[in-house]
Each structure stands twice: as structure tokens, then as C-alpha cells.
Amino acid sequence: MLFHLGEMVTATASVADEVLELLGNEMNYNVQVVSPEEEDRELLDSFDISFGDEGDEEDWVVRPPVVTIMGHVDHGKTRLLDTIRKANVREGEAGGITQHIGAYQVQTELEGEERPITFIDTPGHEAFTAMRARGAKSTDIAVIVVAADDGVMPQTVEAINHAQAADVPIVVAVNKIDVEGANPAKIRQQLTEYNLVAEEYGGDTMFVDISAKQGTNIDQLLEAILLTADAALDLRANPNMEAQGVTIEGHLDRGRGPVATVLVQRGTLRVGDSIVAGDASGRVRRMVDEYGDDVTEALPSRPVQVIGLTSVPGAGDTFLVVDEDRVARQIADRRRARERNAELASRRKRVSLEDLDAALKETSTLNLIIKGDNSGTVEALEDALMKLDVGEDVELRVIHRGVGGITEGDINLAIADNVIVMGFNVRAEGKATELANREGVEIRYYSVIYQAIEEIEQALKGMLKPEYEEVELGRAEVREVFKSSKFGTIAGCLVMSGEIRRNARGRLLRDSVVIADNLPISSLRRFKDDVVEVREGFECGLTLGSYSDIKVDDVIETFEMREKPRA
Ligand code: GDP
């Protein structure tokens, strides 16, 4: 039936959604195409699990806000995260927060009450948007950092847009007030344009002037976060259920195996729980907090590092606790199978008869496999690469990505197509290098993101067909026309500008209108001698191939096609 519909496919090939719907119609089936999210919901349904169910309202208790710090580069996001981390020395802890696990919690006193705030420890909106793109809402409040000596910049605006689009309340931290010339009032003024009006001007956004470097007003900033949370949000969650939440980051640890930092959003996560995160499953063997201490249970808004998964989940993957290891494993297996099918489908080229023509002059594609040491960097790298734009003729496709060393499996995947395997802070394991060498698969290693991006951009540009541009060489005016039985029509010319070169291309203009184009300057003479070029101010005789319609006062323009360097 598909052949009749003009689709050349084999029994195991993937086809487009529309083709399936068409096929369904032909066969009297009603085909419904579901999104990956719907499919996942159905998968969980089949185990009688519902992600996002918050349980009974009477069980809900107040939970701490989860905060992401965003803003323009160099405005002090990292420094602020550092300062907050260091300012919060827990009682009995010598060094304060010592472990970078991807998020941390600090205690703040508000109206005599100790209240925690959770900070996502990755500055910038990349992580925020990556998670949002997967439908995981991890952030309750956005702190937008603006340097008072610099003002509102493009990424400031981007961050504000992201927060507002996600309906996340904003607290503005006006940073670097210690710098001479800092003008916090100007920042307030600039931000009114983006609907962020300071309370002191009658608006409802809290602005706090801080110095992340000197630790000025950090307490006030933390208070403003809590006050904003109390005013704008009703942050409550049910601790009395099996834990659910989102993965913040994951990596492969040499000693401990797969390690993932998760943020509990509802329920209580306990050591011993069976858990599934994305397509990774396992049992929580240990949980470690940002102080490096073991914890036995984690309540809502609590970030913890989980040890015991059998593989590394991706940043933004949701996690949930299930009754039994078996269920966790089955869900993970099903998700992995689905992922693999999707990967295969995106690799396989569909060629229908109509497409065949297009396929023949098809755009070239550079396929990539990205392996890295943690899911955050792999995603950041993929994101940045997908943003590369070198025009429509070449296309970049990431056919596989993952955390960990480059395996034989990766190389096998790469053999099929024009694939470059990228290792970011990871190396090839076992026989992978040998296999790659034997099969001619290119592996490139990186440890700096921008370098990786630059090289891939160069590779893409290298795949572009050369582009040519016309460069004008010279102009000559026709003063006399001779007919010769041997040479045909000869134009006696005076070179007005530039030079006329033999074998260059020329066009003939009459009263500024192009009469003939792309003619060869096939012979060029000064007096009786053949010459290669004639310069401005000199006379010459030339022929334009066999073209004969040349008149006195015509202008001959010559040009050359040169390969254009890529921007
Ligand atoms: P990010 O790109 O937003 O993460 O910015 P960083 O936190 O890396 O800060 C950029 C630079 O600004 C660093 O050299 C910081 O030391 C400096 N910086 C950050 N906060 C302050 C501040 O409050 N005052 C001053 N004078 N410098 C700061």
C-alpha cells in the first residue's frame, strides 16, 4: 500500500506522521500521533503511576522556594552564588558548603523564623530553559543580576523574557555597587521598560543593591526572595507520598558510578527507594548533601546527590519513586527503547519517489555523536552547536548524546553515516579507538566548549560548496570595429580603467545596457603582438569569441569569478 502511495520503504523503515495517517485512512484505522510526553504519561499510566499528582491538599506543607540566578555575562552570577554559599556556614560545619552538587540550600532568618532557600548552582538561563524545554519546571523565583556599572544588556533582557514566559516572579539584584560610577537608580529606571517596577516607585518588584564581591546586602537579597515567594506564590507540597522531582545534573563518577543530583518537588525521597530518572533506574543506595554529608531522607525542594542508579540521567529528566525495582527497570527500559527508536528514525533517510530528486541534490549533513563527562555540559554543547548557523546548504544533526566514555557502541553507530564523535572531557574506552581507526571514524577530543564549537563550525563551513563572486577587472571603450576573415569581429579599444586580461570573462554594454554577457576575451593584441594584459590608458584589439555584434562606443567590461571567503 505504501508503494502505491509513492513511499519506497522496507518493512522496518520509519515513515513520517502524515504518511502513517494516510496509511491508516486507507486501511480504515484512525491513527493518532502522540507527543513523547503523552506517550510517557501513557507508559506511567500502565503502571498506575501519575507524575505530577500532588496527593491530598490537607497533606500539603510549606516548602522552600527554588531559585535560579540569571543575567548578563560578567555581571556577577557566579560570584553571587559563591558568596551566598560561603555566607551560609552551618552550625558545627567548619568550611560551609564544600561540595558542588548542582544545587544547594541556605538558611535565612525572616521575622524570627529560620527558612531555607534552594539555589540552583548553575548560573545563567541555559539550564533553566533546557529544563523548561523538557516540561520540567524547576524554578520558583528568578534572581536577575544586573551590574550597576554596566546596566541592562542583551542577556539581561533574555533572562527577563525567559522568566516572564515561564511565569516565574523576579527579584532584581543590582550588583557591583562597590564599583565607582555604579548607578543603581539608572538600573531601576532601565528595567521599568520591561515591566519591572521597583517597590519604591510604586511597582511590585523587589530590587536589592548588592556587592557580591564584598558581601554587601546578601541577607537583604535572601529576605527579598522569601518575601517575594510569600507574596506571589503559594509554595506547598505533599511530603507524605513517594518522591517525584527533576534531575539537575548527572555524571559518571570513577569510584561511585552514576551520580545524579535531583531536586525533590513533592514527597520524601529515602535511602532504599526504587527510583527511575529519565531512562536510568536503580535503588537509592546513598544520598549526599552539599556539605558532603550522608542524608537518609530528602523533603520537597531539597537537592541531593543520589548514588545507586545504573546509568546517568540527563539534566531536566524527571524522576520518580516506584514500588519495586522491577517497575523502575521496566519504565527505564521502555523509555530507552523509545529513545533508541527515535534515534534510528532520525538517522534513516526517508526517500519517496517525489523526494528522490530532492535527495539527490540534498543538503549535506554533518552528523555528530556527543559524549561528555556530565549531562549539563553535553546539553550545553548540543544547544550551542544547534545554534550554529552557516546557511541552508549544510545541516548539523546530533544523532546520539550521552554521559561517559566513548564506547564501541558509539563507534558502531558512527560507522553508518558521515559522523564525527566528540568527546568532551572523556576518552575512548576499551577497543573503541581501535575500532574507530579501523573503520575510519573520526573522534575529536575537547575540554573547552568554545573550541569545540569553533571546530565544528569550521567543519560545517568546509562542507559548503565554494561560493563565487564577481570581481571587476577593467573597462574598455570600443573605438573602431574591424572584420577579419581569420579572427572574426575585432574590437579596437581604449582601456578606460583597470586592465583587460586575455581569457577573462567580458560583457558588452551599449548605452549602459547589457547586450551580451559572459563572453570570453579570446584574443588580445597590442599592434601585431599577442599579449596577456593591457592596462589603463592603452589601446588594444580584442575578440569576444565568435560574438560579432560590436559597435563603436560600446563598452566592454571584464570580470573574473573569485571564490568568496566564508564569513
Ligand atoms: P558571571 O559571568 O555573571 O557569572 O560573572 P562572574 O561572577 O564571573 O563575575 C564577573 C567579574 O565581576 C568577576 O571578575 C567578579 O569578581 C566581578 N564581580 C562580581 N561581583 C562583583 C561585585 O559586586 N563588585 C565588583 N567590584 N566586582 C564583582
Automatic annotation (TrEMBL):
Keywords: Cytoplasm, GTP-binding, Initiation factor, Nucleotide-binding, Protein biosynthesis. The keyword tRNA-binding does not apply. GTP binds at residues 71-78, 121-125, 175-178. Its main location: cytoplasm. InterPro entries: EF-G-like_DII, IF2_II, P-loop_NTPase, Small_GTP-bd, T_Tr_GTP-bd_dom, TF_IF2_bacterial-like, TIF_IF2, TIF_IF2_dom3. It is found in: Cytoplasm. Pfam families: EF-G_D2, GTP_EFTU, IF-2. Residues 62-233 form the Tr-type G domain. PROSITE patterns: G_TR_2, IF2. Belongs to the TRAFAC class translation factor GTPase superfamily. Classic translation factor GTPase family. IF-2 subfamily. HAMAP family: IF_2_B (MF_00100_B). One of the essential components for the initiation of protein synthesis. Protects formylmethionyl-tRNA from spontaneous hydrolysis and promotes its binding to the 30S ribosomal subunits. Also involved in the hydrolysis of GTP during the formation of the 70S ribosomal complex. This is Translation initiation factor IF-2. The lineage of its organism: Bacteria, Bacillati, Actinomycetota, Actinomycetes, Pseudonocardiales.
